[in-house]
Design a protein that fits this description.
The protein is 40% helix and 29% strand. By secondary structure, it is an alpha+beta fold. The longest helix has 33 residues. It is flat, with a radius of gyration of 22 Å.
């Protein structure tokens, strides 16, 4: 009896928490409308290609002419060696990928959002140079997806909290 009453009270209190799904409204909601109207600008370098491809996969490939917004991304990709052996050889590396991104209104050139995203991964340095390079490559691919997810999530949050001009 008490357990049923407690469950009933919790069920009644749930609507009062004011949580709302990020993608409320589905394909017609503010988040979906903003995300599908963003053109991702080219990002230089191989890492830039990975990040841009991940962003286009998540946002869709909005043509530059039809897009309401332009996403500009600058990357900082760094590898730092640590875990030094007695012979001064590195045994571990940290690959860090940081992105500064800006959402710009394509019609007016007005800056709507300026933020950063980033992540890092550890890489073991082994005796085989090929294996180390493959591990570094895998790390940057994984980091590109993580950074792209962070950027898209932040754009979605921006869409729920603001009403950009032209919407």
């Amino acid at each position: 009896m008490m357990r049923t009453l407690a469950l009933l009270l919790m069920a009644l209190a749930l609507p009062a928490c004011s949580l709302e799904p990020l993608y409320a409204g589905g394909q017609r909601g503010p988040v979906a409308n903003l995300l599908r109207s963003v053109a991702v600008q080219p990002i230089p370098g191989q890492t830039g290609w990975f990040v841009r491809t991940a962003l286009v996969d998540r946002l869709g490939d909005s043509s530059t002419e039809a897009a309401r917004y332009r996403l500009e991304v600058e990357l900082d990709d760094d590898i730092t060696g640590f875990g030094i052996r007695g012979d001064s050889g590195v045994t571990r590396e940290r690959r860090t990928l940081r992105a500064r991104y800006r959402l710009v209104d394509a019609a007016t050139g007005r800056l709507l959002l300026d933020a950063t995203a980033g992540s890092d991964a550890g890489v073991d340095v082994v005796g085989s140079e090929y294996a180390t390079l493959a591990a570094e490559q895998t790390a940057v691919e994984r980091l590109s997806h993580i950074v792209a997810d962070q950027i898209v999530a932040r754009l979605g949050l921006y869409a729920t909290r603001t009403t950009p001009a032209g919407r």
